[in-house]
Design brief:
Elements lengths: L5 E11 L2 E11 L2 E4 L7 E4 L6 E10 L5 E9 L7 H6 L7 E10 L5 E3 L4
Antiparallel strand pairs: 1-2, 1-5, 2-3, 2-6, 4-5, 6-7, 7-8
């Protein structure tokens, strides 16, 4: 039996115009998406948060070839231009977010190959 490749991903939350951008990873296990940090045997390392970074962490885990992962990027929707009066009257709490997802598959040597190219 060959050894499962070591896979490394980074998750983070950073400051961007209009709020924060969050990058997270999940993997498909028995037809259910779970956080990579909840994977048995995963090693989670909190990294130093530099300027503009709220938090950042590296997750290393050994996965079977062909395991599917999903990277999610959530960022604020850029605010539209408006007058000062409109800005003051509008409730901006819970402003919208743009979420993008990309799927990957584990290949040899722990490389991730994108499988959902548009």
């Amino acid at each position: 039996m060959s050894e499962r490749p070591l896979v490394e991903v980074l998750e983070s939350e950073t400051i961007v115009a209009g709020g924060t951008q969050k990058i997270t990873w999940k993997l498909l296990k028995e037809r259910v998406w779970i956080s990579v940090s909840d994977t048995p045997g995963a090693v989670v390392e909190t990294l130093d948060a530099g300027p503009g970074t709220v938090w950042e962490r590296r997750i290393e885990m050994r996965l079977e070839l062909g395991t599917e992962l999903e990277r999610t990027v959530s960022r604020p929707i850029p605010p539209r231009r408006q007058s000062a009066l409109d800005y003051l009257e509008k409730d901006t709490r819970g402003s919208g977010r743009r979420v993008s997802r990309a799927r990957y598959r584990v290949t040899a040597r722990g490389r991730l190959e994108r499988i959902d190219r548009p």
